[in-house]
Design brief:
By secondary structure, the protein is α+β, with helices and mostly antiparallel strands. The chain is built from nine helices and twelve strands.
Length: about 290
């Protein structure tokens, strides 16, 4: 069995006030990318065509993810499922990372959500479990374009947009989300609740019609961008590079450090990525990721 865990792109991010729990109110548009981690559950079918069983089934669950140090969010998701009484036989889950680590593309959240999907229909309140694992996990339970509010727990699904593509510049990861939000607070960034509500209405109307984000580029703003650039000035340089190779819109995704440029199609994105001459540039389609079980 293989599952694709697609990367998540923040097409925009509007910052609101700090909540009592220390998190910020947000208004954002998410969309999945064709760029995805590959999660494999090795199986073996009996010669008689009966039920599948795990190959080399371990005594307990095991999550293997080369290149990721420390606790893996997918392993935590599996542990929480067990705490909730999920009785599936022990699993060995192998994760092939294709989404750059610590790049602000939701790779860890995507992996965790993919694990939670294994228990769909068997464990109640998966949305609540997802929210407990991280702000980006709920939106990844069903990878699809979404208008996201709150701190990420309020997810409103939207229709697939018209085809478009992106070029990603991951910039090596390692930019602390907490530090970016703290710098945004220091800079006095953020909008009142009424303005967030108004912007959500505009985004819902534009994206809800299934248009390409290129058709409402004026709504695509990331309020965290000045804070991220303050902490890592080369993010600003990456944005200029993307504009220089023809991106219709260039933005920071989430709290960074990845920047992205929007293009009309994959061919244009690939040509732009080649012109950049950077080994870390990734061209991929947007809004077209498949979830396989």
């Amino acid at each position: 069995m293989q599952i694709h865990a697609p990367a998540k792109l923040n097409l925009c991010l509007y910052l609101g006030a700090t909540r009592e729990d220390g998190l910020h109110e947000l208004c954002s548009l998410f969309e999945p990318l064709a760029l995805a981690d590959r999660i494999t559950l090795p199986t073996l079918t009996t010669p008689e065509g009966g039920q599948c069983r795990m190959r080399n089934e371990p005594e307990g669950d095991e999550v293997v993810c080369p290149g990721v140090e420390g606790e893996n969010l997918a392993a935590r998701a599996l542990a929480v499922l067990r705490e909730c009484g999920w009785a599936h036989p022990p699993l060995r889950i192998e994760i092939e990372k294709r989404i750059p680590v610590a790049a602000g593309l939701g790779g860890g959240s995507a992996d965790a959500a993919a694990v939670l999907r294994l228990a769909a229909g068997e464990v109640a309140d998966l949305e609540e479990i997802a929210a407990g694992l991280g702000a980006d996990v709920p939106s990844q339970l069903t990878p699809a374009p979404a208008l996201v509010r709150g701190a990420g727990e309020q997810v409103e699904r939207l229709p697939e947009p018209a085809p478009h593509a992106v070029v990603l510049l991951p910039d090596g990861g390692g930019l602390s989300t907490a530090e970016v939000f703290a710098e945004a607070d220091r800079l006095g960034l953020g909008r009142p609740a009424a303005e967030l509500d108004e912007l959500a209405g505009h985004l819902r109307a534009a994206a809800g019609a299934g248009a390409s984000p290129l058709g409402y580029a004026e709504l695509l703003v990331n309020d965290l961008e000045p804070a991220a650039i303050s902490l890592r000035p080369r993010i600003g340089e990456a944005l200029e590079l993307l504009r220089g190779v023809g991106a219709s819109k260039a933005l920071l995704t989430g709290s960074g450090p990845t920047t992205f440029g929007l293009f009309a199609n994959l061919a244009a994105a690939r040509e732009a990525a080649q012109r950049l001459g950077r080994d870390d540039a990734i061209a991929c389609e947007a809004g077209t990721a498949e979830v396989r079980r």
